[in-house]
Design brief:
single chain; 932 residues; Methylamine Dehydrogenase, Chain H; 2 domains; six-stranded mixed beta sheet; 4% helix; 32% strand
Length: 932
């Protein structure tokens, strides 16, 4: 989910734990977008007695948490204004112009020979999803294309494009030199087989980064994308692209955030010419239009999909709109190649007043037209358990219909279809609860198979008879099915158990394609766990679940989306735990979007998932890598001292709460951000600081066993609006640092564009154990720009020496009061005064959102940004790029490991490391977590 999100926890007895008090729109990182308030508030959480699923989202938490993450991630980059077109392009130019420091090369530590195993039987502890059936996984896939010769192309959410020449597997990245690795769609050009790549993920979720346009690779079977492959000019920069579709008259059409465009393709095409704008439902809200500055302008012209009549290339369909509804939502068509468009009010069962995010698909012969529709009416009703309207067919192929509903949430997600979601009926979770975020609709490409159709929502569904009957060929998970045998999940003798259910896919489906390998046709699906395939005419069991899925995430593709990384030594472990007895001398843990918590010993053959659900922030004991704290969003913290491997001494840990080796320890703060910060003391790893609406402190280290063991030491005040009045939005922590008796905290409230406020608080521990607080940056302060505080740090050698890094863009690209220029700020007098460290001239810090800061032992500075890692040596005033070989993905977290390596968590390309440019003997490697 984006910051995304599967609550894929085993739920034995639970109810929804997150309640939406109001659901608004989510801002996109796009030109002319004005943030729309998103008002959801977590009003209750059960921190854990005997229901593991309640802490981890349960039956209804999935969509609620996804929504919250979507809002909060975008806020950091847009508040207090909007992002103008060209921001990321300019940042890319500035960053790549910096010199490179040192000759070391970054290495991908999470790219392992056997991949990332979500079902490893050695990690079936209480908070695990192991045995759910998703198997080997990686990050979110948003585009797929496959040919008839075994070439498969996969576009990952923020990781670029990957190629396989073996029908899936043995992947190679082929887009790493592009300025944007955010992916919208992939399609193969008819006849030539050229690969078209639309950048800018179109899901209106938290990490739907804008792109830099569309690229065409003439020889995708052996080449790689370069910036020179861009089609057109800069007219599509800072936008998102939902779909690419080819007509057989030499025109290619795209559906975007800003309407419908087309371009010529083929032997006579000039790919340097601009894309031709064809249609948008509300043109005055486009960039440069009379209403471009209006609130919600970015949501007025969203086109979710385009479809081309197979029998008439001048007959183009367009549909969709903003998920919450609006005057531009609906169906549109042109019959003269885009010269004129008209709105179509559908007949039959499809309500013209309730069209939201939509996908369209013609049958190969053009005789049937299918549509899947997300309902704005349901979106705006917080009491409903899905936002899916349904799947429809127009049996005459006409956009006007009449339309017949062939699938509803009820007949997709029932026991007859084989849905795993049948168990959630009535308790807040039905198919399509995330139809605003993930959906695909695919008609069989064979002209004789007009009734054969596939639907992707949270699960994958198939119908052979145009929707009269449905089979859940890719269930959400295998839990609760009869084939799932709990008695052999972790046998008492310690041997690895298994269950009788077939391989499923990961949940949350985004894209699908059909291709041929060794003469056999396959269905490929892309979801939040990456890529899976099965024969196009596959088999199902008696439960209507497919028995022939294969995971294609073989370890050669690393599109993992990390929020955080932590590193600890193996010296303190007992050395006999499975999967950590070979490799380097450290254990690397991370928190992932929709893929739980990961554990890896670099050099080992595979990585395992030792926590289920979404991962969040991570804290690891540098002296013992099996001492781990993993966040399951909203500050729901869980601690283990066994790497979350129960071992044979805890044979019932997966099902028996009393036998668990992982413990819920969240402080009682119900207003933390989606990914809430917590840190260990840089001088004593047993002292921890966590931040929500309040700051919480504890001194029991990894021996803590209950949320009641935290002490509240500070509560953030309400923010102030631009006019100076007190805001009703509470303050929440965004970044923390702790060093002995000094703590530093960045906060915001309101954190949204309207009424945005931020501040920085310094806390000093007194002799009696209490903490004294001082606001060193107030909401009204001009000492630093009025932007989101992404990271803070305390100099390990001098606690009076403080640092702050800011997210978002400068005044050049951000509107709003006090946007300000600059990203890195320093105080040498304990916060009394601040000055910029951005520098000037050729060594100036690039104008790019910045997320974390790490101070090395000699005073050198490392900063993680949305486009890589930058470094300033001690004594220098110029910034450089640190090392070579790091892809331009979004870097969210930094850690200095006990092995002397710097680790960075990327949101789209896994975890990478490089040797620290500062000698290990002079770096601060003792103590706990990096500053956040």
């Amino acid at each position: 989910m984006h910051f995304g999100t599967r609550r894929r926890m085993l739920v034995l007895a639970t109810a929804a734990v997150l309640v939406l008090s109001a659901i608004g729109a989510v801002s996109l990182l796009a030109g002319s977008s004005q943030a729309i308030n998103s008002g959801y508030k977590m009003v209750h959480r059960d921190f854990a007695t005997n229901s593991p699923g309640t802490e981890n989202g349960g039956a209804g938490g999935e969509s609620a948490e996804l929504l919250a993450s979507a809002s909060q991630f975008a806020e950091a980059r847009t508040a207090p204004g909007i992002v103008a077109p060209g921001a990321y392009g300019a940042a890319y130019s500035e960053l790549t112009a910096l010199p490179t420091f040192g000759g070391n090369t970054w290495s991908d530590v999470t790219k392992t020979p056997r991949g990332y195993d979500a079902d490893d039987p050695d990690y079936r502890d209480w908070y695990s999803n192991s045995s759910g059936g998703s198997g080997l996984v990686t990050g979110r896939i948003t585009g797929l294309a496959a040919d008839d010769s075994g070439h498969v192309y996969a576009a990952s959410a923020v990781g670029g494009v990957w190629r396989s020449s073996t029908g899936g597997g043995n992947w190679t990245p082929i887009a790493d030199s592009l300025p944007s690795l955010s992916s919208g769609d992939l399609q193969l050009e008819p006849s030539t087989g050229a690969l078209w790549y639309a950048t800018g993920e179109a899901n209106t979720g938290s990490t739907s980064y804008v792109g830099s346009g569309v690229y065409r690779l003439a020889n995708p079977t052996g080449g790689s994308f370069s910036p020179s492959n861009r089609v057109g000019g800069n007219e599509l920069e800072s936008s998102t692209i939902n779909a690419i579709r080819f007509a057989n008259n030499g025109k290619v059409w795209i559906a975007t955030l800003r309407g419908v465009y087309w371009h010529k393709y083929g032997p006579n095409a000039d790919y340097s010419t601009a894309w031709q704008f064809s249609f948008a439902p509300n043109e005055s809200y486009l960039p440069g239009g009379a209403n471009a500055g209006a609130q919600g302008a970015a949501y007025k012209n969203i086109v979710s999909d385009v479809a081309i009549d197979p029998n008439n290339p001048d007959h183009i369909l367009a549909g969709g709109g903003w998920k919450g509804g609006g005057p531009g939502n609906g169906f549109y068509e042109t019959t003269n190649g885009g010269e004129t468009w008209r709105k179509i009010d559908p007949l039959g069962g499809l309500d013209a007043t309730d069209i939201g995010t939509i996908t369209l698909a013609y049958s190969a012969n053009g005789k049937k037209l299918y549509a899947m529709n997300q309902s704005p009416r349901r979106w705006n009703n917080v009491n409903l358990d899905t936002v899916l309207d349904g799947v429809y067919v127009s049996s005459n192929g006409a956009l006007a219909g009449p339309w017949n509903k062939i699938a509803s949430p009820a007949n997709l997600g029932n026991a007859e279809s084989g849905s795993a979601l049948a168990q959630w009926f009535g308790i807040g979770y039905r198919p399509g609860i995330q139809a605003w975020y993930n959906q695909f609709l695919l008609a069989d490409p064979r002209p004789s198979k007009a009734d054969h159709v596939f639907v992707g929502l949270e699960e994958v569904y198939e119908s052979q008879d145009a929707g009269s009957h449905w089979a859940t060929i890719g269930p959400y998970w295998n839990f609760y099915f009869r084939c799932w045998n709990k008695d052999v999940l972790y046998p008492p003798n310690g041997t690895s158990g298994a269950n009788g259910c077939p391989q499923s896919t990961h949940s949350d489906q985004h894209t699908a394609s059909v291709g041929t390998y060794n003469g056999k046709q396959y269905l490929y699906v892309g979801n939040d766990g990456s890529i899976y395939r099965r024969p196009l005419d596959g088999k199902v069991n008696g439960n209507n679940n497919a028995t022939d899925w294969e995971s294609l995430n073989d370890g050669t593709i690393d599109a993992l989306q990390y929020y955080a990384v932590g590193v600890g030594s193996v010296a303190g472990t007992d050395g006999s735990r499975p999967d950590i007895d070979t490799g380097d001398n450290v254990l690397v843990s991370g928190g992932l979007q929709d893929n739980g918590g990961s554990l890896l010993r670099p050099g080992a053959p595979k990585m395992v998932s030792n926590f289920g659900g979404d991962g969040g922030d991570v804290l690891v004991d540098p002296n013992d890598g099996c001492n781990i704290v993993q966040e399951y969003v909203f500050l729901s913290m869980r601690v283990t001292q066994t790497c979350a491997n129960p071992g044979p001494e805890h044979p019932n840990a997966f099902l028996d709460f009393s036998d668990r080796t992982t413990f819920a320890i969240a402080p009682p703060d119900v207003n933390a951000r989606f990914i809430a910060p917590f840190v260990g003391d840089g001088k004593d790893v047993n002292n921890w600081l966590a931040g929500g609406n309040s700051l919480w402190y504890q001194t029991k280290g990894f021996g803590i066993r209950s949320g009641s063991e935290w002490s509240k030491i500070y509560t953030f005040r309400n923010g102030r609006t631009a006019g100076g009045s007190v805001s009703s939005s509470i303050g929440v922590a965004t970044a923390l640092a702790l060093s002995a008796d000094t703590a530093l905290a960045g906060w915001c409230g309101s954190c949204q564009n309207q009424g945005f406020t931020r501040g920085v608080v310094l806390l000093t521990k007194q002799a009696d154990g209490t903490w004294a607080a001082k606001e060193v940056v107030t909401p009204d302060s001009t000492a630093i720009p009025n932007r989101y505080v992404g990271g803070v740090a305390i100099d390990p050698a001098n606690s009076d020496h403080l640092y702050v890094v800011l997210n978002g863009f400068s005044r050049t690209f951000t509107e709003g009061p006090g946007a300000g220029i600059g990203h890195v700020y320093e105080s040498t007098d304990r916060g009394q005064t601040w000055h910029s460290l951005d520098g000037t001239g050729s060594g100036r810090f690039p104008d790019v959102p910045s997320n974390r800061i790490l101070i090395l032992g000699d005073g050198s500075i490392v900063v993680a940004t949305d486009l890589g890692v930058v470094y300033r040596p001690a004594g220098s005033t110029s910034w450089t790029r640190l090392g070579t070989g790091l892809p331009l993905s979004v870097m969210l977290d930094l850690e200095l490991g006990p092995d002397g390596n710097i680790y960075v968590a990327s949101y789209g390309r896994g975890i990478w490391r490089i040797q620290s440019p500062v000698a290990a003997a002079t770096t601060a490697t003792t103590g706990g977590k990096k500053s956040r």
